[in-house]
Amino acid sequence: MRSTLGQLKDFKESVFWQDISEELDVWLEEIRNQLENGDLNFSHRTLDQLGGSAKAIRNIKNLPEVLIGLAEDNRELHDEMINDLSP
User: Fold this and answer.
1) 28 near 54, Cβ under 8 Å?
2) What pLDDT digit, counting tens, does each position of 13-30 carry?
């Protein structure tokens, strides 16, 4: 991972990420509207596509948290390795 924990936390709190997150919320709302107001005769394929799209959007919205968790795990592993090398 190239980003530092601090950079990831800053990104998560940034206006840039807030704008992206708000746009992703709009996309999720559009999917919900299609499901709630759309044709009740959706094919299984269409339902699977809409469900897959919604899941992908939610995963993207969670990406900063996932990356922060990975960075924290990497930092803990690094700290453990340093402690093991210390006399």
Assistant:
1) yes
2) 999 999 999 999 999 999
Read off the pLDDT of each residue in 55-71 and give the average, rounded to a whole number: 96
* pTM tops 0.90: no
Please provide residue 4's backbone torsions phi and psi, each rounded to the nearest 5 degrees.
-85, 165
SS (H, E, C) the chain: CCCCHHHHHHHHHCHHHHHHHHHHHHHHHHHHHHHHHCCCCCCHHHHHHHHHHHHHHHHHHHHHHHHHHHHHHHHHHHHHHHHHHCC
With vertex at residue 24, the alpha carbon angle to CA 51 and CA 38, rounded to the nearest 5 degrees, is 45
Nearest residue to 31 (alpha-carbon basis) of 50, 58, 59: 50
Q: Would you say 58 and 28 are in contact if contact means Cβ atoms under 8 Å apart?
A: yes
